[in-house]
């Protein structure tokens, strides 16, 4: 299953799910295993393996992936049950090694402050272990909100009071919990440029514009001076060299367009 779909899609030569299955075959073959072996393992343990397809030749992400990083990155293994329960990072990495997937790098920190300090530091460069990263998925546990609550300054229902009812998360204490930390730069800027380009390409197909400023672009995507320059540059290049945008809507050429702009800028 991929992108909430299975198998092929009408009008698409190779779907995301089909490409993911091709990579699954490659990973398993390297370990001398079959899809039947893999399916039996998941069935016997009643779990779901969660992987991300990273293949720039098929569909580019915001940041590029090297040849060694191309394939299925195993992010997690979850129990098939109502309450969220997932394998530890160490168990996921061991599973990735056993079945030929690309393991996801991890680091263990003990407190929220350590997580903040670490991600703030990495966010200064946008790199970790010599590689550009979009951010981190933080894996933690749900605490008991009653035990973690700040003591009330007084009884009753005043501002200082806390109750189990209005603080309780929709997860039971001790259950697994994930959240993401995304870096603004350069990831969010690059993502804004990608979405801006898609909007401009779509708009130009429907109507002729004399300037880039006439195309409605959300202000949130024009937060930086470079983004205004990128918008105007893309508008000109649509006329000067339209071939570079030919497959942009299919997830290809995104990185090349961005690097071409940065070289010009």
From TrEMBL:
<feature type="domain" description="T4 RNA ligase 1-like N-terminal">
    <location>
        <begin position="1"/>
        <end position="187"/>
    </location>
</feature>
<dbReference type="Pfam" id="PF09511">
    <property type="entry name" value="RNA_lig_T4_1"/>
</dbReference>
<feature type="region of interest" description="Disordered">
    <location>
        <begin position="148"/>
        <end position="168"/>
    </location>
</feature>
<dbReference type="GO" id="GO:0003972">
    <property type="term" value="F:RNA ligase (ATP) activity"/>
</dbReference>
<protein>
    <recommendedName>
        <fullName>T4 RNA ligase 1-like N-terminal domain-containing protein</fullName>
    </recommendedName>
</protein>
<dbReference type="GO" id="GO:0006388">
    <property type="term" value="P:tRNA splicing, via endonucleolytic cleavage and ligation"/>
</dbReference>
<dbReference type="InterPro" id="IPR019039">
    <property type="entry name" value="T4-Rnl1-like_N"/>
</dbReference>
<dbReference type="GO" id="GO:0005634">
    <property type="term" value="C:nucleus"/>
</dbReference>
């Amino acid at each position: 299953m991929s992108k909430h779909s299975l198998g092929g899609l009408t009008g698409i030569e190779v779907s995301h799910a089909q490409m993911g299955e091709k990579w699954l075959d490659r990973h398993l073959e390297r370990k001398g295993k079959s899809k039947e072996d893999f399916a039996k393992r998941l069935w016997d343990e009643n779990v779901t393996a969660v992987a991300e397809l990273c293949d720039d030749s098929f569909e580019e992400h915001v940041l590029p992936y090297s040849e060694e990083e191309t394939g299925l990155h195993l992010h997690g293994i979850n129990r098939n049950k109502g309450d969220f329960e997932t394998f530890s990072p160490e168990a996921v990495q061991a599973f990735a090694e056993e079945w030929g997937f690309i393991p996801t790098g991890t680091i263990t920190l003990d407190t929220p402050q350590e997580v903040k300090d670490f991600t703030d530091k990495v966010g200064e460069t946008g790199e970790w272990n010599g590689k550009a990263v979009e951010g981190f998925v933080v894996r933690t546990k749900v605490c008991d909100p009653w035990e973690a609550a700040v003591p009330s300054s007084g009884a009753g229902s005043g501002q200082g009071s806390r109750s189990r009812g209005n603080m309780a998360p929709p997860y039971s204490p001790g259950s697994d919990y994930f959240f993401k930390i995304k870096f603004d730069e350069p990831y969010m800027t690059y993502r804004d440029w990608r979405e801006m380009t898609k909007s401009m390409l779509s708009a130009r197909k429907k109507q002729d514009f004399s300037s880039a400023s006439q195309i409605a672009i959300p202000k949130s995507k024009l937060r930086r001076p470079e983004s205004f320059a990128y918008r105007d540059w893309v508008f000109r290049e649509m006329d000067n060299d339209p071939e570079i945008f030919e497959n942009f809507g299919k997830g290809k050429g995104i990185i090349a367009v961005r690097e071409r702009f940065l070289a010009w800028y």
